[in-house]
Amino acid sequence: MKHIEIRFGGNIEAHSTQEKSFEEMFQSVNPMFCFSQRVWKPHMDIFETRKEIIIQAALAGTAREDIVIEVSSKAVKISGTRETCQPNRTATYRLAEIQFGKFERVLYLPSIIDIEKVSAAFSNGFLELTLGKLFEENIRRNISFEFG
Fold first, then answer.
1. CATH topology for 1-5+32-86+97-148?
2. Max CA pair span of the chain
3. Hey, where are the domains in the chain?
4. Distance between CA atoms of 96 and 116, rounded to whole angstroms?
5. Residue 94: beta bridge partners?
6. Rounded Cα distance, 108 and 76, in Å
7. How far apart are CA 55 and CA 77, in angstroms?
8. DSSP letters along 88-120, please?
């Protein structure tokens, strides 16, 4: 069984923001715009319990090895690629909503997380990422003070 790659780091927030392209603005008007190369955003849910933050992502049709998760104490970036299904060039498409190619989503977290308590599962096209919260008493305990 292959594992989902999780990267830990502190620079997730420094991603570039792009303005909407002409294709993005008009993709609902003409479904053929959906076949172009562009980064899309999968649908996600984020919720929390007393001890954890849970992120669920709908990634149907994406292979486990094509998902990359990057985690910092403040944010999570989920990215990857869903392989393109070649459109039938002789067909007349009336609706084309399924997105292929590269995807990326950065989520800013409602609480600081403990990067030692991160796990991911992928089943039936859904990714579930569980992040343990870092409580204030744990933060204080890790800080040492020197008095001179």
1. Immunoglobulin-like (2.60.40)
2. 79
3. 1-5+32-86+97-148
4. 41
5. none
6. 7
7. 11
8. -TTS--S------EEEEEEEE-SS-EEEEEEEE
Those residues whose C-beta lies under 8 Å from the C-beta of residue 71, and which sit 6 or more positions away, are 6, 7, 8, 9, 12, 113, 115, 118, 131
Contacts of 98 (CB under 8 A, 6+ apart): 34, 61, 85
pLDDT for 85-134, tens place per residue?
Answer: 766 778 887 887 888 899 999 999 999 999 889 999 999 999 999 999 98
Residue 93, token pair as written in the block: 């498409």
Task: Give 47's strand partners.
Answer: 54
Whole-model pTM above 0.90?
no
Residue with tokens 């570039």: 16
CA distance 128 to 15: 23
Which residue do the tokens 């076949």 mark?
35
Nearest to 79 by CA among 142, 31, 127: 127
Coil/strand/helix, residue 138: helix
Question: Under DSSP, is residue 25 helix (H, G, I), strand (E, B) or coil?
Answer: helix
Three-state secondary-structure class, residue 66: helix
Say how far residue 70 (Cα) sits from the centre of its chain. Answer: 8
Instruction: Give the Cβ contact number of residue 88 at 10 Å.
Output: 8
